Structure formats: C-alpha cells, structure tokens
C-alpha cells in the first residue's frame, strides 16, 4: 500500500505548487509541512511563505485507486484524514472532524447522511438488560404482570 493523504490548499497556493512541480526554473524551491506537538495544527511552507495547516478527520473513508493500463483499477489506500492549508487570516477549524466531504454532494455529510445517536436513558437500558438476563435464565421480568 502507498502512503497517501489529501492536501487541500487555497487556489493561490495550488498554482504555486503546480508551477513548482511542472517547471524546473520556479522561484519556489522548497515545500515543507511540520506539525506541533498536538499533531493537529502545523505550518505549511512553500518558498519563503508560511501558511497555517490543520489535520482534520473526514466524515467517511475515501478510497484511492490507480491504474497501469487505463482499464483495471487497483485500490491503493483508504484515506480518512485531510490536511487543510489556510491563508494567514482565515479562521482555524474549531473541531477535529471536517463536517463536509471532498465533493459538493457530501456537503454537511455528517448531519444529512448518517444515522443520529439515539437518545437513551442509561437507567432504562440497565433495567431492560437486567430483565433480559432474568428471562434468559428462566425467570420473569420484574414489575411485569403475566396474564393467562
């Protein structure tokens, strides 16, 4: 398996990265990405410019594929995190999980597409579990009237 990650950058930085990769005479000679001790916040450096970066969890796992013959796709990785590079003035995300997926249909995916956690009373769950254990052992549940 390859080691892969998703790097989301502002359009101006994307142009500089593309220029760096395509032209050997580019002014931006270096790329660097370093994270602080918490492992979630860091700095992306291209040339002499520094940009804040954050490591965010995606709402679902993305699969990555590649092909050698334009016919057969081979799965190369499961990607569950994204490195988001921001402009200097942009506000940092407040959560560890990114609310949106990578494509427009996955906008606000966590709220729209996934089942919500049920609201359960822990005492009710304990009581039902206790009653089920009594019933499985041949007894009857407490506070239940049996009608014949």
From TrEMBL:
<dbReference type="GO" id="GO:0051123">
    <property type="term" value="P:RNA polymerase II preinitiation complex assembly"/>
</dbReference>
<dbReference type="GO" id="GO:0005669">
    <property type="term" value="C:transcription factor TFIID complex"/>
</dbReference>
<protein>
    <recommendedName>
        <fullName>TAFII55 protein conserved region domain-containing protein</fullName>
    </recommendedName>
</protein>
<feature type="domain" description="TAFII55 protein conserved region">
    <location>
        <begin position="1"/>
        <end position="143"/>
    </location>
</feature>
<dbReference type="InterPro" id="IPR037817">
    <property type="entry name" value="TAF7"/>
</dbReference>
<dbReference type="Pfam" id="PF04658">
    <property type="entry name" value="TAFII55_N"/>
</dbReference>
<keyword id="KW-0804">Transcription</keyword>
<dbReference type="InterPro" id="IPR006751">
    <property type="entry name" value="TAFII55_prot_cons_reg"/>
</dbReference>
<keyword id="KW-0805">Transcription regulation</keyword>
<keyword id="KW-0539">Nucleus</keyword>
<dbReference type="GO" id="GO:0016251">
    <property type="term" value="F:RNA polymerase II general transcription initiation factor activity"/>
</dbReference>
<comment type="similarity">
    <text>Belongs to the TAF7 family.</text>
</comment>
